[in-house]
Design goal:
Chain lengths: 451, 309
């Protein structure tokens, strides 16, 4: 820890980029609850790992928050009904990833009050660590920052390991997105409670809440909440720089140390939890609310009424955008997530799933044209890459299909933040080609394992 | 690219101030050769013309700055054609070449017309009179009419052990190529480009430091025989080469460590050639040789990746 004031030099990592923020479109808009719609589609695979296994049959009536699919292995989580209603189908439906994917369709009960009628689980203070992990898994919790990695896997600390430092990630470094910002302002108590629950099991020496300095109101609110409490919490303003919210970058910024290549934060005694995930943890244990809804930022110049919306999972994206006044005719591209790491979405007729932090509609003005020129070896990508990789060289190797050599240049360490593509004056799709390279290397390795 | 062009404007104004209309004509001939070739190559490839990205213009401008004021215009034109044709196009265009295109053109001219390219004149204040040699025709052996040969400061040092005043080297009123005489402007342009991050500051710094250090050693041993470090830094094409030629992104290493090695290599070669070589000047060959070493330097200077020591 070097400095924690808002005025002094802010903590950060080396390299990175400064894209325009565009947060003012939605940052002042309080979270709105979207009205319930008629039909929900819940893909069994909304997380990294094995798809959940259905425990309901067609025609069965379900209550809001009831388990409809159970975890199918350790790296897998449960899935719950977002509404009181009836299971009308279990089959293949469109998934935001572009494929047809097994899902459960639920028709909402028109006359239900949609009040949560399930009893909350046993308070976390009264259960063992193993039961806590199982409860989190059953609650369907995943990292809500975007990766949708099962939260209980992250929270499982192997025997003999000690977590010295718990970090709550409130950076929200992606341009446009403001859902974590609003959560910190409006769900500060739940956030602090979630931190408390985690701390009860982790027993870290120190708790940091890292927030980019462009959210001074959130920093002030959380500092006040953290002030009188018994927990060793410090709210740390971080420099506004992309990708400050990447786990490794936040650890480097706050602790001044690097996470060794190929290792996890756990290996350096750190556990990082996203703001949304931490709030959801509290909501499950105190209110009995499993992960059946999440906050999305629906924004971009082509959204008529940008907003932060609390959406039941499984609702069609078109209903969400319609709730926000609809997408205007100028829309040139729709992205799920932020503009840096988000993926282009072709259809709005797919459901909202756990890992989607925003729906972004851009006009021609924000979408870069696709002309690509030769690499002039200007080296800007080297100065942007937060992992100090050599994107120029990797791009060249990718173009020639030299996957093995890409591996020697550490392409597998790349977490695809896209800073290199962003700064490239020749418009070379660098990170896109690294994704291909990584996939090829993994495939090759899988083949070798099979012999 | 265009910002680089703007920083060249003062350098060209100085060239015009010292060498008059000749400077302008030689420059136009070199630029014409470059642009015409770029246009023809683009047409041949049937792609969107790369004429407007400014790179061919920069090559032409830089080539011109390395030529003597009395250089025959047709040769300057041929130099431009070779710069783009053999320095860039045959490698696959922008970003694909190994050697600095302007210096490839210059090297060709040096090999093809060794006399013309080493015939120097002092600034003589005749602004509007092109030098007689400018208008020489191809394959025509005219008798030199009014050329008053004047050795460059480096040649005088090398062959006569006669140093030139540093003030002249800084201001530019000595003989030399169009863009190399005015050291002060080149230093300012270099500082600006480094500040705007348009060039990798490590390269010129490494070159100048190496030259200064290496020269200082010899100067300390035998001050009468060897040039002083300030003289070595300011005379000849070193500043021009360090600021505008060696920093060409395409032909210099990507990594910071590579840039230091690259610059130091150029500095060493410059001093070696200037002191022991047959030529008084060696910046061009030093840069071209290190250009050739760049792929190797890139390969051996991997960046330290986050999380690995």
């Amino acid at each position: 820890m070097q400095s924690t004031t808002l005025t002094g030099p802010l903590l950060t990592f080396r390299h990175g980029i400064h894209p325009e923020e565009y947060k003012e479109l939605s940052s002042h808009r309080p979270i709105e609850r979207m009205p319930f719609v008629e039909e929900y589609i819940l893909p069994l695979s909304q997380h990294i790992g094995a798809p959940a296994r259905p425990v309901v049959r067609e025609g069965q009536r379900v209550r809001r928050g009831e388990l409809i699919a159970e975890p199918a292995g350790f790296v897998s989580v449960g899935l719950h009904a977002p509404v009181d209603g009836t299971v009308t189908a279990i089959g293949l439906f469109g998934h935001p990833n572009g494929q047809m994917s097994p899902a459960i369709r639920i028709k909402a009960d028109r006359f239900s009050s949609q009040r949560l009628t399930l009893a909350p689980p046993i308070p976390p203070e009264q259960i063992s660590a193993a039961d806590f992990i199982a409860a989190v898994q059953r609650a369907g919790l995943v990292g809500l920052g975007g990766a949708a990695f099962p939260a209980h896997v992250k929270f499982s600390i192997p025997e003999g390991r000690h977590i010295r430092c718990l970090m709550v990630n409130g950076c929200e470094c992606e341009p446009f997105l403001t859902c974590d910002h609003r959560l910190m302002l409006e769900y500060a108590d739940e956030l602090m409670d979630g931190v408390g629950i985690l701390q009860h099991f982790i027993r870290a020496e120190k708790i940091y809440i890292g927030i980019e300095a462009n959210k001074p109101d959130a920093i002030a609110v959380l500092r006040e909440k953290a002030g009188g409490g018994a927990l060793p919490i410090e709210v740390v303003p971080l420099q506004v720089k992309y990708p400050q919210g990447a786990e490794k970058m936040m650890i480097t910024a706050i602790l001044g140390e690097e996470v060794p290549g190929g290792k996890l934060p756990l290996d350096v005694g750190v556990l990082v939890s996203n703001v949304g995930t931490t709030v959801a943890l509290s909501q499950y244990f105190r209110q009995g609310l499993p992960l059946i809804e999440r906050v999305l930022t629906v924004t971009g110049p082509a959204v008529r009424r940008p907003a932060n919306v609390l959406v039941p999972l499984g609702a069609p994206m078109r209903a969400v955008t319609d709730f926000c006044g609809g997408i205007s005719d100028e829309a040139a591209r729709i992205l799920l997530g932020g503009p840096m790491m988000g993926v282009v979405q072709k259809s709005l007729d797919v459901p909202v799933v756990k890992g989607i932090s925003g729906i972004l509609a851009l006009t021609d003005a924000e979408v870069r044209d696709f002309s690509t020129y030769n690499c002039i070896r200007c080296g800007r990508c080297l100065e942007a890459c937060p992992l100090f990789l050599n994107p120029a060289r990797l791009g060249l190797l990718a173009r020639k299909g030299l996957w093995e050599e890409m591996e020697a240049y550490n392409v597998l360490d790349c977490f695809e933040c896209g800073s290199c593509s962003f700064v490239c004056p020749s418009g070379i799709p660098l990170v896109q080609s690294f994704r291909v390279g990584k996939a090829m290397i993994r495939e090759q390795k899988a083949r070798e394992r099979q012999g | 690219m265009w910002e680089v062009v703007y920083t060249l404007i003062p350098v060209f104004l100085a060239a015009f101030y010292y060498f008059g209309l000749s400077a302008l004509l030689v420059s136009l001939a070199a630029i014409a050769g470059c642009l015409l070739t770029e246009w023809l190559v683009g047409r041949g490839k049937g792609q969107e013309s790369s004429l407007y990205d400014g790179s061919a213009l920069v090559t032409g401008l830089l080539l011109a700055l390395t030529l003597p004021p009395g250089f025959p215009l047709w040769m300057a034109f041929v130099g431009g054609v070779v710069s783009i044709g053999m320095g860039k196009a045959i490698w696959g265009g922008l970003g694909q070449n190994v050697f600095n295109p302007a210096l490839v053109g210059r090297a060709f001219l040096q090999a093809a017309f060794p006399t013309a390219i080493t015939t120097w004149e002092l600034p003589d204040g005749r602004y509007w009179m092109p030098r007689g040699t400018n208008l020489a025709m191809p394959f025509y052996q005219g008798s030199p009419v009014d050329a008053i040969g004047a050795a460059t400061p480096l040649a005088r040092m090398k062959f006569d052990h006669e140093p030139t005043e540093l003030a002249s080297l800084l201001l530019g009123n000595t003989s030399g190529s169009l863009g190399e005489t005015c050291g002060l402007l080149l230093i300012l342009a270099g500082l600006y480009l480094a500040w705007r991050r348009l060039i990798n500051w490590r390269i010129p710094l490494a070159i100048l430091l190496t030259v200064a250090l290496f020269t200082a050693v010899f100067y300390a041993i035998a001050p009468a025989r060897y040039p002083s470090p300030p003289f070595m830094l300011l005379a000849g094409g070193l500043l021009l080469g360090a600021v505008y030629m060696a920093t060409d992104m395409v032909t210099s290493p990507l990594t910071p460590k590579g840039a230091w090695i690259f610059g130091a290599g150029i500095g060493l070669l410059v001093v070696l050639i200037r002191i022991w070589g047959g030529l008084p000047e060696g910046v061009m060959y030093a840069i071209l040789l290190m250009n050739a070493a760049t792929p190797l330097i890139n390969r051996f200077t991997k960046t330290r990746v986050y999380g690995y020591s």
